[in-house]
Amino acid sequence: MANADYVEIAKTNDLAESQMRAYEVHGKEILLAKHNGTFYATTNVCPHMHGRLSDGLFAGSVVTCPRHHSSFDVVDGHVIRWTHFSGLTLKLGNLFRPPRPLTTYQVKVEGERVLVQVPEG
């Protein structure tokens, strides 16, 4: 990652277990989530239709977008479900917007500080 320092975005007690929250770092919306005592950071913008994931649901390690119910694993960003569409609508939708994982960011905890590595720009 070129020019990507770790930036403190939260304190460890800012998020309860199974909670998520959006932060802005270097002009990017970052979603910070806590699952099984570990913090994970991804983009807060859904790659399907650009919904704000922080307005969606978070269960286990899965975040679900409020727009079309696309679901992603915050651990590595992989797609669990691309949309709630089915049949022909799903096939056409996948042609125009093929499934894409979430961008994930490295997280480290130093004492009470939660730091995320986010490239500038």
Describe the structure.
By secondary structure, the chain is mostly beta strands. The protein has a single domain, classed as Rieske [2Fe-2S] iron-sulphur domain (Rieske Iron-sulfur Protein), CATH 2.102.10.10. Helices cover 8% and strands 40% of the residues. A four-stranded antiparallel sheet has the order 2-3-4-9, with no helix packed on it. The longest helix is centred in the C-terminal third of the chain and has 10 residues, at 87-96. The protein is elongated.
What characteristics describe this protein?
1 helix, four-stranded antiparallel beta sheet
Fourth-level CATH superfamily = Rieske [2Fe-2S] iron-sulphur domain
Average pLDDT metric: 90
Tell me the Rg in angstroms: 15 Å
CATH class wording: Mainly Beta
Strand content: 35-45%
- The CATH topology, please? Rieske Iron-sulfur Protein
Envelope shape: elongated
Write the layout of secondary structure elements.
Layout: E1 6-11, E2 20-25, E3 28-35, E4 38-43, E5 57-59, E6 62-64, E7 71-73, E8 79-81, H1 87-96, E9 104-105, E10 107-110, E11 113-117
Antiparallel strand pairs: 1-11, 2-3, 3-4, 4-9, 5-6, 6-7, 7-8, 10-11
Brief summary:
The protein has 121 residues and is mainly β. The chain contains one helix and eleven strands; from the N terminus they run ββββββββαβββ.
